Each structure stands twice: as C-alpha cells, then as structure tokens.
Amino acid sequence: MENQLYLMIISFALVFLLLCLIYHTKKLRRQMELLHNEKEVLNEISNEDPLTGIYNRRGFDQAAASVLARSSAAVVGLIDVNDFKRFNDVYGHAAGDVVLKEIAHEISELAKHYQGICGRNGGDEFVLLLPGNVIELDVRLQKWANVRRGAFGGRAWLAFSLSLGYAYYPRHANELSQLVSKADLATYYAKMHPENHACRYNALMTEARRTQLGFSLKDMLSGVPGGVLITEADDTGRILLANQELAHLFECDDPESFVGMRQVDTIYPDDWENLNRVIQEHMEDSPELEEHSIARYRIVTRRGNLREVISLGKRFHHEQYGDIFYIIVYDAEELRRV
Questions:
Q1: What residues contact residue 25 under an 8 Å CB cut-off, 6+ apart?
Q2: CA 95 to CA 97: how far, in whole Å?
Q3: How close are the terminal C-alpha atoms of the chain, in Å?
Q4: pLDDT digits 0-9 by tens, 71-118
Q5: Helices first, then strands: H and E counts in the chain
Q6: Cα–Cα distance, 168 to 179 (Å, whole number)
Q7: Given a cut of 70, is residue 250 above it in pLDDT?
Q8: Cα–Cα distances in Å, from 11 out to 3, 16, 97?
Q9: How far, in Å, CA of 143 to CA of 162, rounded?
C-alpha cells in the first residue's frame, strides 16, 4: 500500500514537471516568436522612409542587389523635384511633404507595374530601379517625367515638376553605385534643359561641370548689375520678388518690403499711363512670350524723390503664378554716365 502511494506521488510529480516543461516551452516559443516579429518590424522600420512609406536609401540598396542579380537588363533613375526649396519657402514644409508623398505614390505604382523597387534618398531626391526591356522603359520614363503635375495642399492646388536622369544596367555600369552616379549626372542635364524633364545618361556627360547648380537664388539676385523685379502679368502687377539693387534704387533697405505691393504704386503717377500702354502692347504683340519690352519712366523713392529709370522686361509663364514679368531696372543717370 505504501509503495503504491509512493508511485502515485512520483507519477503526479512527473506529470506536474512535464506540464511545467510544456508550459515553459510554449512560453519560450511565444517569446522567441515575439522577438522575431519585433526584429522584423525593427528591420522594416530601419529600411523604410517614415514620411513616404517607401524604402530609405539603406533599404533600397539592400533590395536593389537582389533585383539586379535576377535581371538581365534594368534602368536606374534619380528623381528631383524642381525648385523644391523655393516651393517650401513659398508654400511651407507641410505643402512640401504633400508633394513628396504624391511622388512616392507615383513611383511606387510605376515600380509595381514593372516589378521594380523605389526609395527616397532624402530631401526631394528619389531613386527608382525598373527591370525589363530598356527601350520600352526609356519611352515610358520619358512620357512619365513630362506629365504636368500637382497635388492638393490644404485648399490649394500646388503645381510642381520633376527632373529625371537614368542609366542602363548593364550597358552603362554593373554596380549600383556607378549606375546611381551616372543617373545623377543625367538628372543634372535634365535640370539644365527644362524643356525635357527626363534625360538618359551618355558618356559625354562625364566631363560635365556642375557649376550652374552651385549658385543659389540669393547669389544670383545679389550679383545682377541692376534692380530685379518680378510681377504678375495682369492689371494689378503684384510684385512677387525684388533684389537688393532694386531696394537701393528706391532708397530703402529691405527688398522684402516690395513683395505684395502693386507695381503701379512704385511708379510716378504721371508716367504710369504710358508705361501701362507699353506693357499692354507688349502682351498683345508677343503672344509667344519671346519678345522683350523696353520702357523709360520715373519712380518715386521711399524718401519722396523722383528717379528716372530704364527697364527691360520679358513675359514668362510660371507653373505656380501663371504669366509673370521678369524686369531688370537701371538708373537712367548711371547708364548715361557709363
């Protein structure tokens, strides 16, 4: 009887230990699964751009290696938003984020169609890898890049454009870093020739000097030998931009004080009618926006002085503002001395 009791106790103890072992094994397995899932999530987060949800540079580079390994031909493209800094300055960073998300959505759809990948390198630069027939992809990318674009930012429709440069794998290079470098050169050429928003790399580009992109808007405006004025080409002539030299002509310190004013308010009243007639004739006679107009008139400085100036203007169509006037203004007395 006593032996049976011992056997029962031992049996219960063994069953209890077995149940504990099973429980702790399952608990350990769940913990390992959770750790694995957390690792996958962390790895996904580390490879993902938080704003757009597409690959960041690290994630793109990792994914690109496997795409190129299984592809006999492909295209690598770099995409920049044209004048993105100015866009942010005018509309704010929230509007800029809307544009970046819109581009990410577009290139994600493009990548899915060709079983490729896309990513954001940072700022307004995106990268794209599309496997397939490069001739077909070339036509598709040219068409895609030249589409007129815009996005809703709050209540406003925000127009923007892109520059795309691309290179062929393996024709132009075998390594991803070399392909990206050559696509970057082609993007520069696309920016310098805005009539076509897409440019394919070619060997002649390797000697290119990228000096033009090294000048900021501030550098160019401050260095122009004359007052620069940009206005809307309508009846109000609202001023959109002025430089320091123009402020000097008007005997004031801050060119920002001109922004939002009407051009008519800067002209001596007796001269406005004649100047407005010159503007209207220019708009009627040069519908193709190719002709310049020259005018002589007087301005009223902030100190109340009259100053005779000579201006050279040209109408231009801008994506955000519509038709605008670029005007360079010179002091007539200084020109006569020259």
A1: none
A2: 5
A3: 128
A4: 999 999 999 998 888 777 777 888 889 889 999 999 999 999 999 999
A5: 10, 12
A6: 7
A7: yes
A8: 12, 8, 68
A9: 12
- Amino acid 107 reads I
Mean pLDDT of 314-320: 78
Question: Beta strands 162-169 and 292-300: pairing type?
Answer: unpaired
Least confident of 97-101, 233-237, 306-310: 233-237
Q: Which residue has the tokens 């004080």?
A: 257
- Nearest CA-CA partner of 149 in 159, 141, 157: 159
Q: 191, 131, 132: which is closest to 164 by C-alpha?
A: 191
pLDDT at residue number 41: 45
- DSSP SS3 for 278: helix
| pTM of this structure | 0.61
Q: Are 224 and 190 in contact (CB under 8 A)?
A: no
The candidate with the shortest Cα–Cα distance to 310, out of 334, 326, 290, is 334
- In whole angstroms, give the CA distance from residue 29 to residue 135: 51
Q: Which residue is it, tokens 């393996």?
A: 170
Predicted confidence (pLDDT) per residue in 47-60, tens digit: 899 999 999 999 99
Res 210: pLDDT: 59
| The pLDDT value given to residue 276 | 79
User: CA–CA separation, 19 vs 12, rounded Å?
Assistant: 10
- How much is the mean pLDDT over the chain? 82
Distance of alpha carbon 242 from the chain centroid: 24
> Which residues, 6 or more positions from 114, have their beta carbon under 8 angstroms from its beta carbon?
130, 131, 132, 137
Q: Are strands 292-300 and 239-242 parallel, antiparallel or unpaired?
A: unpaired
Place of tokens 């690598």: 76
Contact of 85 with 99, CB cutoff 8 Å:
no
Contact 83, 147 (CB under 8 A): no
DSSP 214: G
Residue 152: exposed, middle, or buried by beta-carbon count in 10 A (0-12, 13-18, 19+)? Answer: exposed
| The pLDDT of residue 42 is above 50 | no
